[in-house]
């Protein structure tokens, strides 16, 4: 079960791998079959079960839930749009950009709420994100990002620029 770049993820190494379950033996009939036990697959199954508890939902996973990329992430929740807002707006409009970012922000809160409701000890601390500029060029890019968010009307209420002294009170980063 080991992968080329090492064993399972850091997270599984901390708590130990789950016991393997028996494989699917024969045909199966269900209302919904979710293929993949990563974050998207498990979230889909959980949400569907909440919307309609009468659904017979099956999640198929080749290894074990959280084995692949979902279990090898950095362990944080982020509502940051990874692509270009302009590119997304070209097909979905400015309203679509704002709707997507809003949905991403709500998703962070949804994950936290599900963990609380289900008693999942995910060691979650909602404490924001800190981006640090270590060069003049990086500072320009960070400021452009803040200005872009303000223009698009997304996330601006949660984002502020800290001066060197304020940053130093939170974290020490050389040449920041």
**Using only CA atoms, what is the Rg?**
21 Å
Q: Structural class, from secondary structure content?
A: mainly alpha
Head-to-tail CA distance between termini:
42 Å
Question: Which regions contain 5 or more consecutive residues with pLDDT less than 50?
Answer: none
Q: Which word captures the global form?
A: globular
Helicity range: 40-55%
Number of domains: 3
Order of helices and strands: HEHEHHH
Mean pLDDT: 89
Strand order of the largest sheet: 1-2
Features:
two-stranded parallel sheet; mainly alpha; 176 residues; 3 domains; globular; 5% strand; 44% helix; 2 strands
Question: Could you write a compact summary of the structure shown?
Answer:
By secondary structure, this protein is mainly alpha-helical.
């Amino acid at each position: 079960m080991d992968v080329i770049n090492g064993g399972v993820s850091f997270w599984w190494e901390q708590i130990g791998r789950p016991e393997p379950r028996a494989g699917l033996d024969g045909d199966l009939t269900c209302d919904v079959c979710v293929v993949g036990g990563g974050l998207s697959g498990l979230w889909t199954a959980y949400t569907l079960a909440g919307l309609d508890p009468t659904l017979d939902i099956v999640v198929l996973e080749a290894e074990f839930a959280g084995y692949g990329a979902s279990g090898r992430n950095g362990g944080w929740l982020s509502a940051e749009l990874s692509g270009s807002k302009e590119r997304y707006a070209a097909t979905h409009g400015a309203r679509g950009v704002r709707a997507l970012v809003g949905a991403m922000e709500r998703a962070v809160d949804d994950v936290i709420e599900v963990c609380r409701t289900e008693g999942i000890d995910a060691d979650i601390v909602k404490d924001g994100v800190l981006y640090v500029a270590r060069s003049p060029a990086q500072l320009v890019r960070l400021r452009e990002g803040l200005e872009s968010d303000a223009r698009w009307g997304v996330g601006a209420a949660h984002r502020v620029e800290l001066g060197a002294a304020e940053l130093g009170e939170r974290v020490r980063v050389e040449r920041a």
